[in-house]
Amino acid sequence: MNLQSHCIDPELLSTVASEIGVDWTRLAGKLDATIDTDVIIQEKNYCYDRAMAFLKRWHRKDPNLATVSKLMNALVAIGRRDITNLIELNKKSQINLLREVPETSNAYYIERETYITLMVDYLKIIDQNKDGGHILVHGMAGCGKTVIVSQSVRQAVKQHNCFSSVGVYWVKIGDIKEDELIIKLRSLYIKLTKTPYINQLPSTTEEIVACFNAYLEDNVEKAKCLFVFDDVFNEDYFRILTFAKKSVITSRLNHFVNADTSYYVRVPESLSNDEALQILAKYYPEDVLIGHRQLILQTIRNCSGLPLAISMIGGLDFKYEADWEHAIQIIMRRDTFHTLYEYNYNLYKTFDLGINALNKKERLLYQSLAVFKRVHIPKQSNMALWQMNQHDTKVLLKKLNARSLLVYDKRRYVTVVHDLMIDYLQQLPVRQHQTLQEYHQWLHQSLLNGYLTCCDRSDWSLFPDDGYYYQYLIYHAIQAKADELLQDIFSNFNWMTNKIAAHSGLCNLRNDLLNCKYYLRNNQKNWEKADDLLLLLNQNESLFDIHNQDVVQLLLMVGPENHWITRQAIKLAIRNTRFHSHRNFYWMIKTYPHYKASKITWVASKKIGTVISDRTVRCSNSSQGKLIISTNNNERSNCQISVRNYHNLQLVSRLIPGRQHIYAIRISNDSRILAYRYDREVNSIWNVKRNQVQLTEKSLQCSYNMKRCQFIEDGSKILLWYFKNSVIDGEIDGNINKICKLEIWSTSDWQRQHKIKVPARVSYTDEVIRPIHNNIEGAALSHVKYISQQDTIIIAVVYGEILGCISTQPNHTCDLVLQFDHYFSPIYQSFHSIDSIAVTDDRKLIALQSFDEVMVVRLMNGIAEKYIKIDAPDGSRKLLFIPDSYRLLIYEYDNSQTSYEYNLMEFQSSKNTALMERQLSQCNEENENVIDISCAFINDASVIMQLVRNELEDSYEMKVHTEYRHTNILLNNGAKENKYQRCFLYDDFTSAILVSAYPCHKNTDLTSDIGIQSWNITVVEIVNFQQNYDSKVIEKIIAQYCIYDKVKEFIILSTRHRHQDATIIIVANIKTINNSERTLVMLINYEKSAKTVYFDNNRNEYELTGIIYFDDNNLITRQWLGKDSFKCIIKWYKIGSDSINLTSEHTSTYEIGAGLACKIQISTLPNCTSFDLKMETSTFDLDDGKFLQIWGKKYFELFKRAGAQDRDERFLIEKGDDFVILDPYQDVIVKGYKKTTLSFKLSTQIFSIDNIWPDKFYFVFDRNTKKIEIYEAKTLRLLQALPFRYFTPRMVKWNRQQSQFILTDAKCHYSIIGQVPSELDETFDDED
Question: Which of 37, 212, 412, 479 is the most buried (most CB within 10 A)?
Answer without folding.
Answer: 212
